[in-house]
Write a structure and sequence with these properties.
Elements lengths: L1 E6 L7 H12 L5 E5 L19 H12 L2 E5 L9 H11 L8 E6 L5 H13 L3 E2 L5 E2 L9 H6 L3 H17 L2
Parallel strand pairs: 1-2, 1-3, 3-4, 4-5, 4-6
């Protein structure tokens, strides 16, 4: 099973990026994780540019989504919303449909950050992604665990993440 993991943050030391890297370390052997790191290269969404495969960075993003059996997203919350860079990436997929019926799990790194999580759920549902609620979790990472090594060693977060990934892996393999 091929899993595409996306952090909604561009900060290199972001707790969401650390959580995605930890997820890649904790996935079951049967799951091949690819971390998409090209959000910063995506141009601002403009329907006038969405011709053919679209700009090169967009075509690469779409291809990564298409090749994935499932998608894992961890996103911060900025001003009660989804970071613009992640929303922009999703906007590029609305018309092309790569997320239609694609299993998607969300991991929330900050229990107090509920607005972006809810907004992402709404956006992805509108895009007809198949939200995997049983694999979507909230864990207390932000401000507490500084890097993927600490996340992987945490006795609460690591098992929750493993369970979510195993659930997502089962769904992805059954497609």
């Amino acid at each position: 099973m091929r899993l595409l993991a996306i952090s909604g943050s561009l900060r290199s030391d972001s707790s969401n990026s650390s959580l995605i890297r930890a997820a890649a370390s904790l996935t079951p052997e049967a799951v091949d994780v690819h971390i998409f790191s090209g959000l910063a290269e995506l141009p601002f969404f403009n329907p006038d540019l969405d011709v053919g495969l679209g700009p090169t960075a967009v075509a690469q993003f779409r291809e990564a989504i298409q090749r994935a059996d499932a998608v894992l997203i961890s996103s911060p919350e900025y001003a009660h919303g989804v970071p613009g860079v992640l929303k922009n990436a999703l906007d590029w997929l609305v018309g092309s449909g790569e997320l239609i019926d694609k299993p998607v799990a969300l991991i929330n790194a900050a229990p107090r950050a509920t607005y972006a999580y809810a907004s992402l759920m709404e956006t992805l549902t509108t895009m007809t992604a198949r939200i995997m609620h049983e694999a979507s979790i909230t864990v207390a990472v932000s401000g507490r665990l500084r890097n993927e090594r600490e996340i992987c060693a945490d006795p609460i977060v690591a098992p929750a993440l493993r369970k979510a990934l195993a659930t997502l892996g089962q769904v992805g393999r059954s497609i």
